């Protein structure tokens, strides 16, 4: 019995030690440092691959920081699962908030690189101004519009650090959606994207 427990303990320690390099391999500071070292050694192809992986890991860290800005509850609404997607240079984070039979969908769309963030915001604002009945408002010192079309309400906020944050609901009053948007930590989420 003691030998069995000892074997299990050794196996557990072995697995734990084996996973340490895997965790270290995904550490952006280690990966970025590896890229620099490979470049110094003249392995340009290896350095480029490590640098790409470094950027990917840093982008994932930013997405985690931004996701943590989505609260579990707002105005009696409870958050569902946070969904994250990245397509080329575009990152999208979505979460549905439910209360009774009402759902308010919150989505953040923006560029993962700061260079194209302002262009993305400008294109998004042009699209918002072209469609439907809209009313301009401010939410936490950020420009926003309320779009009311076909029993669907959208509150679209232009973020200072690029991108747009959209609050959308069907069958919910615009006052309810605006009140929800005003309670949402818009400024904190925007600042987390620096």
Mind explaining what this structure looks like?
This protein is an alpha+beta fold. The N and C termini lie far apart (56 Å). The chain folds into two domains: 2-64, no CATH class; 71-191, 3-Layer(aba) Sandwich (Protein Transport Mog1p, Chain A). Strands 1, 2, 3, 4, 5, 6, 7, 8 and 9 form a nine-stranded antiparallel beta sheet that branches. Helix content is 47%, strand content 30%.
Quick overview of this protein structure:
By secondary structure, this protein is an alpha+beta fold. 47% of the residues lie in helices and 30% in strands.
Round the mean pLDDT to the nearest integer and report it. Answer: 77
- Segments where pLDDT lies below 50 for 5+ residues? 1-24, 114-130
Quick one: biggest sheet? 9 strands, antiparallel
Q: What count of domains describes the coordinates?
A: 2
Please state roughly what percent of the residues sit in beta strands, choosing from under 5%, 5-15%, 15-25%, 25-35%, 35-45% or over 45%.
25-35%
Name the shape in a single word: elongated
Per DSSP E runs of 2 or more residues, the count of β-strands stands at 9
Given the helix and strand composition, which structural class is it? alpha+beta
Q: What is the CATH C-level name of the largest domain?
A: Alpha Beta
How far do the termini sit from each other? 56 Å
Helices and strands, in order, run as: HHHEEEEEHEEEEHH
Evaluate the radius of gyration. Answer: 22 Å
The CATH topology of the largest domain corresponds to Protein Transport Mog1p, Chain A
CATH hierarchy: architecture of the largest domain: 3-Layer(aba) Sandwich
């Amino acid at each position: 019995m003691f030998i069995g427990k000892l074997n299990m303990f050794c196996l557990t320690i072995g697995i734990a030690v084996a996973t340490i390099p895997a965790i270290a391999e995904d550490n952006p500071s280690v990966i970025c440092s590896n890229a620099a070292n490979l470049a110094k050694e003249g392995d340009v192809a290896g350095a480029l691959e490590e640098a790409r992986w470094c950027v990917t890991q840093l982008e994932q860290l930013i997405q985690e920081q931004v996701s943590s800005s989505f609260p579990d509850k707002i105005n009696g609404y409870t958050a569902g699962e946070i969904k994250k997607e990245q397509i080329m240079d575009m990152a999208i984070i979505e979460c549905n908030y439910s209360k009774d039979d009402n759902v308010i969908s919150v989505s953040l769309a923006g560029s993962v690189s700061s260079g194209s963030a302002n262009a993305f915001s400008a294109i998004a604002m042009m699209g918002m101004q072209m469609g439907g009945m809209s009313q301009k408002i401010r939410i936490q010192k950020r420009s926003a519009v309320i779009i009311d079309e076909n029993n669907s309400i959208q509150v679209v906020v232009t973020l200072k650090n690029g991108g747009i944050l959209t609050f959308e609901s069907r069958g919910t009053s615009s006052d309810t959606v605006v009140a929800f948007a005003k309670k949402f930590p818009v400024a904190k989420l925007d600042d987390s994207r620096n």
